[in-house]
Amino acid sequence: MNVLPKMTPLRWGIAGALIVLLELVNRLAGVGMSLVLTEMLILALFASSLNLLMSYGHMVSFGHAAYFGLGAYGFTLAVARFDVPVELAVFIGPIVAGLGGLVFGALCVRLTEIYFAMLTLACAQITFTVLFQWYDFTGGDTGITGFMNPRFGLTEQNFMTLVLVVLVLCLFAMAWIVKSPLGLSIRSVGQDRWRAEALGLAPRRVQLTVFVIASVFAGIAGTLFAVFQGSAFPDYAGLGFTLDALIMVVLGGLNSFWGGLVGAVILVQLEHWVLMVTSHWELMLGLAVLVLVLVLPQGVVSVAGRLSNMLGLGRKK
Amino acid sequence: MLFLIASGLTLIFGVSRIVNFAHGSLYMLGAFFTYALVPLIAPGTVGGFFASVLLAGLGVAAIGLIFEVIALRRVYGAPELMQLIITVALVLIIRDVVRWIWGPNSLSVPMPDAFMGALLIGDNYFPIFPFVIFGAGLAVMLVMVGVIRFTRAGILLRAGTDDRGMAALLGVNEKLIFSSVFAVGALLAGIAGGLAAPYGDVNYLLDTTVIVTAFIVVVIGGLGNLYGAFAAAMLVGITKALGILYFPRLSMVLIFLIMAAVLLARSLGRQGGPSR
Amino acid sequence: MATKTRTGVSALALAAVLTSAAAAEGNTVKIGYVTGLSGACSSISEDGLNGTKLAVEELNAKGGILGRQIELIVRDSQTKPDEGGKQARELVASEGVDVLTGVCSSSVLLAVEAVAAEAGVPHYAIIGSTQKANIEAFQPNFWQIQPNATMEAFAAAAYVAKKAEWKRIQPMGYDYEWGHTSVEAFTEHLKELRPDIEITDPIFVKLGDNNMGPYIAPALSTKPDAIYAAIFGGGLVNLIKQGQGFGLFERSNLVTLTTVDALQSMGSTMPKTGVYGIARAPFFALPPSEELPGFIESYRAAYNEYPTDWAVNGYDGIMIYAAAVEAAGSTGMDALMPKIYGGTFDGLRGAGLTVRAFDGQMSAPAYVGAIAFGSEFPFPTLTDVDIVPGETLMWSEDKIQALRGAAN
To answer: Are both C395 and C377 inside the same structural domain?
Structure first.
């Protein structure tokens, strides 16, 4: 498996150009588009955190939204219930998500494969149910609203720029982790835990580490989402967000660093444009996923890879 | 009732290793087909009702079969995740199509006249219909156990579950088994949906309410374990009833906790200690 | 439990734009309508939208508001708060709507209200009716034209209190914020009115649970004279259908929400006796007025069905807004809000309704009556309907302020 796409100067150039392009669209295409882009980037971060877990750790989670929700609620509750200043609270969200990841992860890594996935599902549903039912503290199903100015009071465009910066920083951090010695352990445990164990690694500890890291990034995405919406609802920790992220990773391309990112772009843009033509978004999404998975089981990223190979931009294997 | 849904799900998983997210959707289809059929076939009579349910189940089985052949079959070799995502796609498609055809409103399937009302024993009322569902579910289970135990199809099925590779080596047609198992699973889901239809309301969001509970039952019973699913369906039903009485706010959390505990206990028990 | 895919539930965000010649010039009054066309709210959202469309058509035929045509821009919230908030934000940012409305479900209502308050856009509620929007989340851009959740529960309590022969009441509710609030408000009000009545511990029903047996049996085990159920939609259908198997209606009575759509979908499965219903705006029990017959007739002509409570409120909502804008001479918030809070409004639900400035609640009446068959309509209706005036159902300003203090 490719560790990371090799960043040739040309690729850096393309990446930089894409960032500039995004920012230009943000500034020029109207506030409505800025909102769509902001949501897209936040979900891209969320999907990338799941991708880190899946593509490198080879752990399929059915409950990743729990940490997205914990991030959102960690931030929101800190501000609304404990009067923590907003600047400080943005760090509490990811920390809460990381702690949640630590507790649940410690249980989940005892299992493997489908049993692991099922246990993550159970943990996520417990999180969701608690958020949904603890009215006095979490506001129950009606959530928490109106506790702060959405987007820190920034304009839509400026907030989108902020999210873009955070996303790029997080992607750098993820890339750095993947390349680091820790990343090496993560990958080797992901590929073959027995051999990794024989080599003196403690698979469970490594898996727990990557689980917590992925939870923290999901928590950052959740915090951003709560800031963006100016509210927090139990849905954020629900199965819906988990499934969306799973679809994004698979659509974008499993086993690729860019999978989550590309998938989020495709899904959000698809939704935005399909809805202008037809009201049957669900049907369209279902068919699109079906066709894409059957035709491109490696995800959309693989096409980009093949294309760039054809064009002679390819990475050296 | 829960058992019927869960047994189909666990059967499919046991043989094909597919986590079928669309199982709730197949259940829902069964309910809607029954809604469409009941007024056509001797309305109000017991026979008409069961005939409708059976036909609805067969219809769902046919749809399951078509789906298996055109989509699922292509990804058996792929990672489990691909199969899962494909079934999620099916969930979305079925839900939208159902909403398209029947609209978003809750629909009501009339109960056969004979099953309305209650038995009065002393001072206690016992509603008839749940017993009918339970009886029908039990009958279906007995038929299934019979098939698995005593027929050639059942032997092949058990062979497939125990050791897929070996069964294939021995010349068993794997594709045929997978297809028929998926169809049977769909049939069970469809029948379950049809049977339950008159008891509650029928709407296009039934799928999600059903699938999560079905997952819990299947996991607690042991993935792929038919008898486990039966015991787990009982356990979940009883836990819910007791939970409502004694821990009203925690009953759902309680069920998920059981699920988590079962999973963890299993990892220790079956796989030989924490070293794994 | 909300476990649908987030983008999954199909979306009708397509701008269903009702335009006319004037709309093209951009000089229109834009109504941003965010509603749950898909998801849990879909059926009642559609009714509300139908009533709204009818009102818009009528107003436009008469020349619109302030001589400007009305443009209705519809977005689907998918009954999800984040999606509703997003749609509302887009309507404000891209379309520059003059007012937001249409929201169904408490959580989406609060999400949309947060957006509207931030953007300084007027917002009124016609379906979602959480009292939180009047209390802790209240902002002076908001008004609510229907009785909110606690008012409906108060109306139920007032009705139950009148039944002298009822001595023991079992409350039941959906296990989420609205259900709990309703049960608490009901209990509180009933205790005030009838200290002699025994109220047993409430039972809460998990959302989306199709099997009501485990709830019905314990509810009946206390041998109550009546069960008050803060349950609606599919759950209510299940409760009534399955309750018959437990002899609920021979052994006890049921007081619950029966809007016209519920009465229609229940049809012949509704028991003949023992059900008492609270409704928001049942067309057959509305006070006689000049407009009412015409409204029912044109609604039936347009949609081939009787108007439900949601349709009536959708219609009334626009009419109230139009009247206030005409009085203010502007759609701007600063001019409009004093007219909303200071005005008196006539609508299908009666004349002389007012909106309180400190919580945005309209003095809307609630309707309570007994289920009856054999009327001129092809579904059960309510008979001996008490129209409970809104004023008697609303918390005082002191109480509201106290609750706000406690919430912060």
So the answer is: yes
